[in-house]
Amino acid sequence: MSEWKAICRVDDIPVLGARRVARPQGMDVAVFRNDQGQVFALLDRCPHKGGPLSQGIVFGTSVACPLHNWTIALDSGCAKAPDEGTTQSFAVKVEHGLVHLDVQELNSLALDVKPPVAGPCLRKTACA
Questions:
Q1: pTM score of the predicted model
Q2: N or C: which end of the chain has fewer CB within 10 A?
Q3: What is the 3-state secondary structure (H, E, C) of the chain?
Q4: Longest CA span, the chain
């Protein structure tokens, strides 16, 4: 049986927007709300170049990555054709106006995914 953690109220998530949930380990989880009141959760990282999906545009049951406009399905995390790739999805439960995420998933899924590195230089010695 799953243990659920209350994250926020549904009303705390903007319609056609997102809210980020920090984890002690691994990247943040983005919790989205569409215009039909549905709530979804994905790792806050586009599978293409690591763009922050929480800053993307939500439409229907998809989000457009703010970096290169890739369309990601909110229910599965899969990029829509012709693009390919997947970002981790998380189970969501809404009860009495509260959004809950599965504790086991928060503590175990996609912990090894690193945030993207910005800028032209990846090595400190070459940029110093």
A1: 0.89
A2: N
A3: CCCEEEEEEHHHCCCCEEEEECCCCCCCEEEEECCCCCEEEEECCCCCCCCCHHHCEEECCEEECCCCCCEEECCCCEECCCCCCECCEECEEEECCEEEEEHHHHHHCCCCCCCCCCCCCCCHHHHC
A4: 54
Positions of the chain with pLDDT under 50: 126-128
pLDDT in tens, 27-45: 999 999 999 999 999 999 9
The domain limits of the chain are: 4-127
In sequence order, what are the residues at sequence separation of 6 or more whose Cβ sits closer than 8 angstroms to the Cβ of residue 1? none
Q: Which amino acid is at 107?
A: N
Q: Which residues pair with 71 in a beta bridge?
A: 64
